[in-house]
Structures are given as structure tokens and as C-alpha cells.
Design goal:
This protein has one domain (2-237): Rossmann fold. 30% of the residues lie in helices and 17% in strands. It has helices spanning 9-26, 41-52, 80-87, 109-122, 159-165, 184-188, 203-211; strands at 2-6, 31-34, 62-65, 67-69, 99-100, 128-131, 153-156, 178-181, 192-197, 229-234. The two termini are 15 Å apart. The relative contact order is 0.19. It binds 2-amino-2-deoxy-6-O-phosphono-alpha-D-glucopyranose (GLP). 2-amino-2-deoxy-6-O-phosphono-alpha-D-glucopyranose binds at residues 35-39, 66-67, 132-134, 140-141, 161.
């Protein structure tokens, strides 16, 4: 794993964008795995800037998002499909038909999950997966206890995640309790992984994932088993690290 600790989230976004752009330029029809949440926003700002400045082309890029809430239509304010449109897709020259976000309204969610895995396989797998980390160490919506071999499936969210996400909803009762999420096994099959983190509330999870044992209690610790992971961490999320990493 390569770990880079940066000063602020703008630096985090720029480093991550540079890394992804370099890979995208080397491979047409690049398959990019994307994440939601506040963490990847500085990365998306920079990717938009690069695209609008003519530095990076998305016309042949294919994307797959990690997860979506069950029960939220794509038009819902808090759906991850809408988040991606508003924060990235609507501002770059991507073919919207090549962007994939799990369908939270699928009539048969289990069949949808299988189909999502097949769609990823059909385009040759994910070239680079962007990830954030939950304050309890989750990746995508793989909560503590998720099998490290898990695949795309319907999952139940933990109380701590529902609480973390309640800031985006008017009432706690409005926060969905289930989601469709790529599995840890699915994520680990990406050729490369770019993991981002900022904020003091992530410091414990970052330390446990990077320096603790590989355990289902900290889903992000599974990244230790992947040969090509770049962690880009802002100082405020790196305060609990004990080993010497690049600064
Ligand atoms: C949600 C998403 C995760 C994300 C996490 C952290 O649970 N499913 O993919 O990493 O939130 O969110 P934030 O980046 O806002 O801290």
C-alpha cells in the first residue's frame, strides 16, 4: 500500500485526480469505480476542472458506483444517482448511458445485484476504484462483520451509519435502513484502489484499517490484501497513525 499524507482536502483531491488521470490517459474505455459521500467531492471538483480545461476526456469512460439506498428513486434529493449527476456527471463529457449506479428501486433487488456484477465483468472489471471510509471502518456499505469475500448484495445499515447519514435527511426516520452495495470481494477485484480520507472523525478508522489486523470488524482493513492501493489522507485523519508514512 502506498500512503500519502497531505495538508488539506484540496491537495487530497488534486493528488487523487492526477493519479486517476494518468491511468485514464493510458487506457481508452477506462472503467472507473466511484464513491459518494463528502470525501470524494474535492476529487470530483478537480476532475471537472480538468475536463473543462480540456486536460481529461471522459467520452469513452465507463463508471460503476459502489452503492445506492434501497427505496430511493434516482430523482430523490439524497439518492446516490442524483448525487453523482449533480456533483460529477452533469459537468463532464461522459456518456450518461455509460454511468452505472445500483438501482435502489429494482423490483427484484437480488437479481439486480447479480446483474450488476455481470455488467462489471462484461466490461472487463474495474480499472480503478475510488473509496471513502466510514467512521466505523466501512467501505461502500460493507458494515463491520461483512465477509471479506462478499459480493454485490442488499445490506442492512448499522445504527452508527444511519446516524452519520441522518445529517442529509430531514428526520432520522427518513434515512433508509437498507442499501445495495458492492461487496468487499467485488472491490478487491479492481486493478487499483484509491482510498481517500479527511476529518478527525475518521482518524480511528484510518489507523485501524492501515495498521491494525485484517479483520471483518474493520472492512477497510481488507485493502491490506490488495497489491495496488493508494491511500491519500489529510493530516487531520492521520493523527492516530503510528508508523512512518510519507508526508
Ligand atoms: C457512506 C457511503 C460510503 C462513504 C461513507 C463516508 O456510508 N456509502 O461509500 O465512504 O458514507 O461518507 P463521508 O465521505 O461523507 O464521510
Amino acid at each position: 500500500m502506498q500512503v500519502t499524507i497531505v495538508r488539506d482536502k484540496e491537495q487530497m483531491g488534486k493528488r487523487a485526480a492526477a493519479l486517476i488521470a494518468e491511468q485514464m490517459r493510458a487506457k481508452p474505455h477506462f472503467v472507473l469505480g466511484l464513491a459518494t459521500g463528502s470525501t470524494p467531492l474535492p476529487l470530483y471538483h478537480e476532475l471537472i476542472r480538468m475536463n473543462q480545461a480540456g486536460e481529461l476526456d471522459f467520452s469513452t469512460t465507463i463508471t460503476f458506483n459502489l452503492d445506492e439506498y434501497v427505496g430511493l428513486p434516482p430523482t430523490h434529493d439524497q439518492s446516490y444517482r442524483r448525487f453523482m449527476n449533480v456533483n460529477l456527471f452533469d459537468h463532464i463529457n461522459i456518456n450518461q448511458a455509460a454511468t452505472h449506479v445500483p438501482d435502489g428501486m429494482a423490483a427484484d433487488p437480488d437479481a439486480f445485484c447479480e446483474a450488476y456484477e455481470r455488467m462489471i465483468a462484461d466490461v472487463g472489471g474495474i480499472d480503478c476504484q475510488v473509496l471513502g471510509i466510514g467512521s466505523n471502518g466501512h467501505i461502500a456499505f460493507n458494515e463491520p462483520g461483512s465477509s471479506l469475500a462478499s459480493r454485490t448484495r442488499v445490506v442492512k445499515l448499522t445504527k452508527s451509519t444511519i446516524k452519520d447519514n441522518s445529517r442529509f435527511f430531514a428526520r432520522m426516520e427518513d434515512v433508509p435502513t437498507r442499501a445495495i452495495s458492492m461487496g468487499i470481494g467485488t472491490v478487491l477485484e479492481a486493478q487499483r484502489i484509491v482510498m481517500l480520507a479527511y476529518g478527525a472523525n475518521k482518524a480511528d478508522a484510518v489507523a485501524a484499517a492501515l495498521e491494525g489486523p485484517v479483520t471483518v470488524s474493520v472492512p477497510a482493513s481488507a485493502l491490506q490484501m490488495h497489491p495496488r492501493v493508494n491511500w491519500i489522507i489529510v493530516e487531520d485523519a492521520a493523527t492516530k497513525l503510528k508508523l512512518e508514512w510519507d508526508r
